[in-house]
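Case 139 in the screening queue. Each case pairs one protein sequence with one candidate compound; here the compound is 1,3-dihydroxyacetonephosphate. For every case the pipeline is the same: read the inputs, emit a complex structure as tokens, and attach any notable structural observations.

Predict complex for case 139.
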Amino acid sequence: MKIAFIAHDRKKEEIVNFAIAYEKTFSHHELYSTGTTGKNIMGNTELQIHRFMSGPLGGDQQIGALVAENEMDLIIFLRDPLMAQPHEPDIIALLRLCDVQGIPVATNVATAEILVKALERGDFAWRELVHKYKPGDIE
Ligand SMILES: O=C(CO)COP(=O)(O)O
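Case 139 output:
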């Protein structure tokens, strides 16, 4: 599965700890992140992550581009609900695209944990069908 990690600055420690806790699970998947989030996770785990630009410089939009094509399977996006972000429109656009495509997205660690448990159980198998059959394949 393609999994994206994104965290705002005051949530960086939380996402790193989360990645450490589920490192074995994540190691079996294709990982993506915004710039600084990925740097922090890779600095504290053995995980290999494809890093996009930093969020304020367009990283959310780059991940959003994959979401728009229904390529991303799970997004863990620990937002800071108590601090305004300069790139708020990009954040809203990314979350909107997740809803357009029906992609599982966690915006807090409690939900992230439930989704990762579901991933471990095999509950994301339906996403393989999404990748197998692109729009237009089925009449
Ligand atoms: O701002 C972000 C998401 O909106 C995260 O970006 P960084 O991972 O580069 O800090």
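Case 139 observations:
- The chain has one domain: 2-74+82-132.
- The chain has a mean pLDDT of 96.
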